[in-house]
Amino acid sequence: MDDARVRHALALLVNRGDFETRVFDGLARPAQWPIWPGGFVHGKEGAVPAFDPGAASKLLDEAGWTDSDKDGIRDKGGEKMKIVLVGVEKPPPKDISAPPIKNEREFFVEAARRIGVLVDHK
């Protein structure tokens, strides 16, 4: 996470527009803080990037995180790219008549895995 390109790539994997529509029905906006060391209180808030997994993949390539062994997971210097998500979202109420709804964490994890980022849950 010490490389700004990696932080930017991860920010590009959050689909804020889709989240706004799915969760808030367009009536509210989610928090827009970008990811950087120290959090939003330690620096000026930057522009919020649009959802762009292709650009995220390109940034990770530029930062040296590629899939050198072709196993579907990016690596650099023999180390796999892995992020750990800590905490859980409150599950939606169970309604057996409705199909299960994905939460924002699941959408992020899917986007990350599609571009070769190993995601672990704690």
The sequence of SSEs as H and E is HHHEEEHE
Number of strands: 4
Going across the biggest sheet, name each strand in turn: 1-2
Low-confidence stretches: none
Q: Beta-strand level of the residues, as a percent range?
A: 5-15%
Characteristics of this structure?
31% helix, 4 helices, two-stranded antiparallel ribbon, globular, alpha+beta, 122 residues
Can you characterise this structure?
The chain is an alpha+beta fold and 122 residues long. The protein is built from 4 helices and 4 strands, in the order H-H-H-E-E-E-H-E. It has a two-stranded antiparallel ribbon. Strands 3-4 form a two-stranded parallel sheet. Strand 1 and strand 2 form a beta hairpin. Helix 1 runs antiparallel to helix 3. The mean pLDDT is 79.
Q: What is the fold's blueprint, element by element?
A:
Elements: H1 4-11, H2 16-24, H3 53-62, E1 75-76, E2 79-80, E3 82-85, H4 104-114, E4 118-121
Parallel strand pairs: 3-4
Antiparallel strand pairs: 1-2
Helix pairs in contact: 1-3
Question: What would you say about this model in short?
Answer:
By secondary structure, the chain is α+β, with helices and mostly antiparallel strands.
